[in-house]
Amino acid sequence: MLAAMSERTESRKQRAARRAGEFPPAPEPLPRPVLDSHTHLDITVSEYGVPLRAPRSPAEDGSGGTAADPVAAAIEVAAAVGVDRLVQVGVDVDSSRWGAEVAGRYPAVLATVALHPNEAPRLADLDEALRQIEALAAHDRVRGIGETGMDFFRTGDEGRAAQEESFRAHVAIAKRYGKALVVHDRDAHADVLRILDDEGAPDTVVLHCFSGDAEFAAECVRRGYLLSYAGTVTFGSAGALREAAALTPIDQILVETDAPYLTPMPHRGRPNASYLIPLTVRSLAATTGADLDELCAAVSATGDRVFGPW
């Protein structure tokens, strides 16, 4: 009896380990289309492949055909549940260049370009990297500068000067090109606000994967910033984050995946992708008390105001 129980337990562990690397099933579609305001298609596809089953090309009949373009497949899977626009976010020169190229090929995709705050201290020539980012910022399909900002979780004291220099430079680029600034803020709330206040924030600022409490949310709302909520708002431990969402005006809310990270409940720990946005949107509707249809319409309109037209 004990042997049989152990065998079944091991089998469950094996199944759980296997599922951890698989994309979750598709959620119920939304009543109105929305956007994923922050995703990393390059990382998602390279690390996990295509969400669900990719459409196959007509040539694939067992005689050497290949799967359809994985980016097109990811867009199609997202559109099927009402996520019809994606913002591909750059974190270094290479990913920013890739994003600008992808946005030029796919009407459903726009791009942002930047050096991630944890990337800045690692660069041998920060100025040259910033020059390349600024060149990419001029592209029409590049609609944001980010993700940039401050991160005190992964970068220690020795790297913070480079982070701040990089962040200030990105703020200036966003203002020169009239594009949204997409801010990465991890354990650095006060410093992010300080730098934005010092430099004079661009007209449009998006706090990516908003992670603050109600007090910080109120400060951001007062400044007119957009708060973009990720799957973290669905986590059981995220009570303070839900309090922040509850006081955010509906026209200052965006929704994102940060895919392949931060997968919403009940699939936390599995790979994330844009087609899972409906889980986060429904959680935000419950948290804010907004009608789901009204929230979808507001998020969509805000996305067009910040990044559009697509």
UniProtKB/TrEMBL annotation:
Any Pfam family matching the protein: TatD_DNase
Annotated stretches, region: Disordered: 1-36
Stretch forming the signal peptide: none
Cross-referenced InterPro entries: DNase_TatD-rel_CS, Metal_Hydrolase, TatD-like, TatD/YcfH-like
Membrane spanning residue stretches: none
GO cellular component, one term: cytosol
GO molecular function annotation: DNA nuclease activity; hydrolase activity, acting on ester bonds; metal ion binding
Chain positions recorded as a divalent metal cation 1 binding sites: E147, D258
Protein name (database record): TatD DNase family protein
Organism: Micromonospora halophytica
